[in-house]
Design brief:
The chain is an all-alpha fold. Helix content is about 70%, strand content about 0%.
Length: about 375
């Protein structure tokens, strides 16, 4: 427990809460009431459904970005991959001549394929043209978002509607919801994806290669890991998870693609924040995603209850990441050197003194 409390993550979270409380005091608000409103509004009976719905999207994007981040590869094209997955799922749901259950499955797979193919394009730009993945993934995101916006505003636009949105999906082409809430089976899908990520990361040779590449890319290359091929595999998986998140968003309420509905909430950047906070570990990514979903939903309740702007929760996220980065950069203290030991230990430290080589050892 003491080691966990001294960890950079716990320190960053505590620092964020304390500085957020100081901001609240400076504005004349009561920190206890504000934080209480965040907890009640996000985890209470009226807010838990919205929190779980938000967790679905945040966790999906956090997993999508954590997979390459585990190997120190940064995918900033989550918006484009997610939007392509969403618009592809919408087109599949509208025009696939299949029964509703099969159409839902096909729409999910089509969204994953679209996001995966677009992410692979960014990896190819790095492997064959030398464009850094950070740059290629980010720049490729803009034409994807613009293309989806064009399709929702013109060819696929719902007739008679003033909103940039497609027609509503046919009856039955939707993910099943839990009761009357907005929480759908999509939450189970992203949890299963997280479980698969955990299994791959901790129980397979591929997971070991990914972790080894993240810790020391030069050593992993010397050990025989093909970095270009690994980049393609990780980006394909990352894009598939982002496309799955977009498809889940379209197959859930309001059961259509609405221009800006996937990008405006900032799921990509919140997911990246969660992945960074968890150091891309599977279990940590789940917990961090839920934490940021609580902040996002609870911020709205805090604004309604205490009149404190919900932007404070975004400030808290930024403070957590700043303190996490600063704490990780601090050098560790070195233990003071004790008195020089006598006897054989001192002889071992003397320069030039070596023990005779044993049998089978190099002298």
């Amino acid at each position: 427990m003491a080691r966990a409390l001294r960890s950079p993550v716990a320190f960053s979270l505590l620092a964020g809460v304390v500085i957020g409380a100081l901001f609240l005091v400076g504005t004349g608000a009561d920190p206890f009431s504000a934080y209480g409103a965040v907890i009640t509004g996000s985890l209470g009976a009226d807010g838990i459904g919205a929190t779980l719905s938000t967790t679905t999207s945040v966790l999906g994007m956090a997993l999508a970005l954590a997979v390459p981040l585990r190997a120190k590869l940064i995918n900033l094209g989550g918006d484009g991959q997610m939007v392509l997955g969403g618009i592809t799922a919408a087109v599949t749901g509208l025009y696939a001549p299949l029964p509703a259950p099969l159409t839902v499955v096909l729409a999910l797979l089509a969204g994953m394929a679209a996001g995966s193919a677009y992410a692979v394009l960014a990896a190819l730009c790095e492997n064959h043209f030398g464009v850094p993945l950070l740059v290629s993934s980010l720049l490729l995101s803009y034409p994807a978002v613009s293309l989806a916006s064009y399709l929702a505003r013109y060819p696929l636009k719902e007739p008679g509607s003033s909103l940039p949105q497609t027609r509503r999906l046919p009856e039955g082409v939707a993910l099943p919801a839990f009761g009357s809430s907005t929480v759908t089976v999509g939450l189970l899908l992203v949890v299963l994806a997280a479980a698969a990520y955990w299994f791959t990361d901790s129980r397979t040779a591929l997971g070991f290669e990914i972790r080894m590449t993240g810790r020391n890319a030069r050593f992993s290359a010397y050990a025989g890991v093909d970095r270009g091929r690994l980049t393609l595999r990780l980006m394909a998986t990352s894009g598939a998870l982002a496309g799955l998140t977009g498809a889940i968003g379209v197959l859930s309420f309001p059961y259509r693609f609405v221009d800006g509905s996937l990008t405006a909430p900032g799921y990509t950047w919140t997911g990246l924040t969660a992945a960074l906070l968890a150091a891309a570990t599977p279990l940590g990514t789940i917990l961090a995603s839920f934490f940021f979903a609580v902040l996002q939903v609870g911020g709205l309740a805090m604004e309604r209850t205490t009149e404190v702007p919900r932007e404070l929760t975004q400030v808290l996220q930024a403070i957590v990441i700043v303190f996490l980065a600063a704490r990780l950069r601090f050098p560790r203290r070195r233990r003071p050197a004790g008195p020089e030991p006598d006897g054989p230990q001192r002889a071992d430290r003397e320069p030039g003194r070596r023990e005779p080589a044993g049998q089978g050892e190099f002298a």
